[in-house]
Automatic annotation (TrEMBL):
This is Leucine dehydrogenase. The active site is at K105. InterPro entries: Aminoacid_DH-like_N_sf, Glu/Leu/Phe/Val/Trp_DH, Glu/Leu/Phe/Val/Trp_DH_C, Glu/Leu/Phe/Val/Trp_DH_dimer, Glu/Phe/Leu/Val/Trp_DH_bac/arc, NAD(P)-bd_dom_sf. NAD(+) binds at G204, A205, G206, H207, V208, G209. The lineage of its organism: Bacteria, Pseudomonadati, Pseudomonadota, Gammaproteobacteria, Legionellales. Residues 168-368 form the Glutamate/phenylalanine/leucine/valine/L-tryptophan dehydrogenase C-terminal domain. Keywords: NAD, Nucleotide-binding, Oxidoreductase. Catalyzes the reversible oxidative deamination of glutamate to alpha-ketoglutarate and ammonia. It comes from Aquicella siphonis. Pfam families: ELFV_dehydrog, ELFV_dehydrog_N.
């Protein structure tokens, strides 16, 4: 039984019993069990060099959906750990956003040399087809609509093909969801209907950070940003006139909102003590280094927008495309993040329970 999104281990070794010598396979199986899987399928094809894993977390709400990433993993264990962690997260994202899907993820272990890319992805398409519609595949890191087109020659359980009008980069849609959550928080916490003059400190000027800055700037927000990548940061300075700060100063900026858009586990005892913002809403996955920190923020009067709810813009889009909807329908559904998260802010205040706990509880109920 998983107690919380943030309690999930980053490493399956944590689930090894101290007095028993488990093999890596044992630990991974225990990790999968702990996360509440589901079925896990593997495919090895010598001819094309395909080594792939599909981890189907939950089918309660409908066929499981999630991207297929192709990454040069150092070991199979790393690939397995990644696919388990990500598939599980997809279930929670889908459930909290009321999508008619369970969560899943696929990884293709990138071969050192790809002899025939088309043959490789066709074989992956056959693998998806063998799963009989339990898993719907989509783009992720290392794949694009062009690969989805190849997969579509062998299966219909695929979305994000070029014909669907999908883009390889979901970041603008993710940023839209985060912006809507910020608007809802500003309304709830500060009683303001617009972001005009609201000060947002954004950690990370990468894909999502950039588009979020663009959205917020257009709405008149005042922005402070940091990034270890000076080129990415300078682009936001040039285009949106943002102020910048040092990496470790971002938490103590006297802003209304702190938007973590770089790394996971950035919300811990030290950073929360330092935070001046009364709202935390960003795209990063697993922002809380432990779920307790959601409660700590709640006690300190900091309104936290649950990450897995508000950063699901890309997944919502993929689900809409599979249902033959278009970008307009995706945008409508991503805009709904405002209402979903606002309800959670209200319930948190009414029941005096941290927002992350409420969101996780709702998702778990829907997955049961
Ligand atoms: P990205 O790699 O494009 O951007 C991350 C940025 O953070 C980079 O510019 C990097 O230099 C910067 N960074 C790294 N360490 C930093 C630090 N200590 N302080 C400040 N900046 C630092 O990634 P992204 O696609 O923009 O995603 C950002 C976060 O949102 C990630 O946690 C990702 O998992 C999550 N997320 C992204 C999407 C999406 O659509 N891209 C969807 C859901 C969740």
């Amino acid at each position: 039984m998983v107690d919380s999104m943030s309690d999930r281990p980053s490493n399956s070794k944590r689930y090894a019993h101290p007095h028993v010598r488990y093999t890596v396979a044992d630990s991974l199986m225990r990790y999968a069990e702990f996360l509440g899987y589901g079925d896990i399928h593997t495919k090895i094809d010598e001819k094309t060099g395909l080594k792939a894993i599909v981890a189907i977390h939950n089918l309660k709400r409908g066929p499981a959906i999630g991207g297929c990433r192709m990454v040069a993993y150092q070991t199979i264990d790393k690939a397995m750990e990644d696919v388990l962690r990500l598939g599980y997260m997809m279930s929670y994202k889908a459930a909290i956003n009321n999508l008619p899907h369970g969560g899943a993820k696929a990884v293709i272990i990138k071969p050192k040399v790809i002899k025939d890319r088309e043959a490789l992805f066709e074989k992956f398409g056959e693998f998806v087809q063998e799963l009989g519609g339990r898993y719907i595949t989509a783009v992720d890191s290392g794949t694009s609509p062009a690969e989805m087109d190849i997969i579509a020659r062998r299966t219909s359980f695929v979305t994000c093909t070029t014909a669907s009008g999908a883009d390889s980069d979901p970041s603008p849609l993710t940023a839209l969801g985060v912006r809507r959550a910020i608007e809802a928080a500003v309304k709830f916490k500060l009683g303001r209907d617009t972001l005009d003059g609201v000060h947002v400190a954004i950690q990370g000027a990468g894909h999502v950070g950039y588009y979020l800055a663009q959205e917020l700037h257009a709405l008149g927000a005042k922005l402070t940003m940091c990034d270890i990548n000076q080129i990415a940061l300078q682009r936001c300075v040039d285009e949106f006139g943002v102020k910048t700060c040092a990496i470790d100063e971002i938490y103590s900026i006297d802003a209304d909102v702190f938007a973590p858009c770089a790394l996971g586990a950035v919300l811990n005892m030290n950073t929360i003590k330092t935070l001046k913002a009364h709202i935390v809403a960003g795209s990063a996955n697993n922002q809380l280094s432990h779920s307790h920190y959601g409660s700590l923020m709640h006690e300190r009067g900091i309104l936290y927008a649950p990450d897995f709810l508000i950063n699901a813009g890309g997944l919502i889009h993929v689900a809409v495309l599979y249902g033959h909807g278009d970008i307009k329908k995706s945008l409508e559904q991503i805009n709904n993040i405002y209402d979903t998260v606002y309800d959670i802010y209200e319930r948190s205040s009414r029941e005096n329970v941290a927002t992350n706990q409420i969101a996780e509880m709702i998702a778990r109920e829907r997955l049961r």
